[in-house]
Amino acid sequence: MIAIPLTAFLLVAAVLFAIGLYAIIAQRTAVMVLMGIELLLNATGLNLVAFWRFTAPQDYSGQIFVIIIVTIGAIEMAIGLAIMMLLYRRHQTVQVDKYKALKG
Prior knowledge:
It is found in: Cell inner membrane; Membrane. This protein has a domain at about 30-95: Orthogonal Bundle (Helix Hairpins), CATH 1.10.287.3510. The chain has three helices and no strands. It has helices at about 5-25, 30-55, 60-90. α1 (about 5-25) runs antiparallel to α2 (about 30-55) and α2 (about 30-55) runs antiparallel to α3 (about 60-90).
């Protein structure tokens, strides 16, 4: 069995994080922003699993944290999509720049 080095996992996680950050900054639709946030959470989970695997594989705390992160991501996506559906019904657009009432 070929052992994959830690740097490979960290590189993939960094690429996922960069794509997610780009999706949050560059995209103007609310669904793409939510998908970018989801990519950020997945990159964090990949980092946790990689460090867990290479530092303390006998301890399952890394996997527990990843399960918590995935659960929080699912809840965030469900609530975010519900809010976006309500905003779409009210304003008839999914462009986040058009929501002037949400600005402080």
